[in-house]
Amino acid sequence: MPLLLTRLTWLLFVLSLGALVWSPDPDWAHGTVLHVDGLTRLMAVVTTFFSGIIQSFARRYMAGAKRLNSFYGRIFALTFIVILMTAANHLVLFVGAWTAMGWLLADLIGHVRGWPQARAAARFARWHFLASSALVAGALALLGVQAGTTTIDGVLSSLPSLSSSTVALAALLLLGGAMIQSALVPFHRWLLSSMTAPTPVSGFMHAGLVNAGGILLARFAPVAFELSWVMLVIVFAGGVSALVGQAWILVQTDVKRQLGSSTVAQMGFMVLQCGLGLIPAAITHLLLHGFYKAYLFLATGSAVKQTTPSKASPTSPSLAGSLVALVSAVLGGLLFATLTGKSLTTLNSGALLTLFVVLAVLHATRTMIRRSALPRTARLWAVPVALLSSIGLYALVYNGVSALLAPLPMVSVHPPLTPLHWTLAGLFVAAYVATERGWHRLSTRLYVALLNSSQPVSTTLLHNRDQYNAY
To answer: CB of 452 within 8 A of CB of 252?
Structure first.
């Protein structure tokens, strides 16, 4: 069974890749039940690729484990359901796929039936997913009844005729469902409590399934973008999770919990980009974060080692290194803006996204210059070249995703910046400076507050090492 389902998943990946690269959308796929568009084709490729990697890895990692056929059956079923959800055009089918996705994911979190902690984590996650499904179902039922249709296309085409209160309520319900599924603050504890799941499940979950919040907002972008104040609420929700999740990473000592906190931050930034009206940027972030996080989770076994804490403080880059990092950040922002067509003279969401790119390049350059094993002279030119090349690759992926999503309604809007946007930008800059200066280490009260707020549910924690060996 594991071998059969793994090969079948890779076959689906090849077919999905062929449909993405060569085949136009077939006429039969534009019906009331299914609607295959650029988003569907892209997510089919991403989902089957991650699933194939996870299943191939798990054939050795899970060898000898109990209930192996059930494990592979659920992974494969989850892969199929995610594809079905992105292709669903009927409202009932979309809600059914969304609910089934959460139910199967909760089962995988509690895969080791002999651990009470795993069962507790599964129950906790399942209640969250059921709440998310209820919010999504309520939003789609409201829109469907008011629009007099049972299809997503019909709802989106009828939005101009709906009252603003109906659209606002539906948008907020969809945002709530997206926040729960993507583990945004304050719904993050189900994700941080899910570490009882086998590592392949964690990799699949963090690389793809928590991204469903972004897919939901992308599919119903016209609903979310109809009212400007709703977009501000989305920006606020995503920005808070991005900042808080990044702060949590600084105080974690468990490698998987570090990755979980990172996912909260990354999903927050993905939702933030949705609120900025930049759906292609959010889907690009979803895609690249998935590759990165899947690798990190599958490599956690080689990253864990027993060490003695060092009292040596981290070194800071030299003046030359700091200047190189600053120049690289500015060039990275200009390169991204040029390749993606973002105007820096018009202060809109595209300019704000460019600022985030500048901060990311600045942080990455300083970190690599400080930690790289290359000779000092080589670090000053090799690191910027590598990072600027990465920015160029990111821009190319962004443009490709934009082209695929172009036929979607309201896939990209550029709202003017408000005081909330400027405040959020200032908070991101302040958070970067505080992290680089190590100010978070100066306050014991802050450390305890961050550590306490990022704790998983106590009943999901494994305390006895022998429990690992039993399963």
So the answer is: no
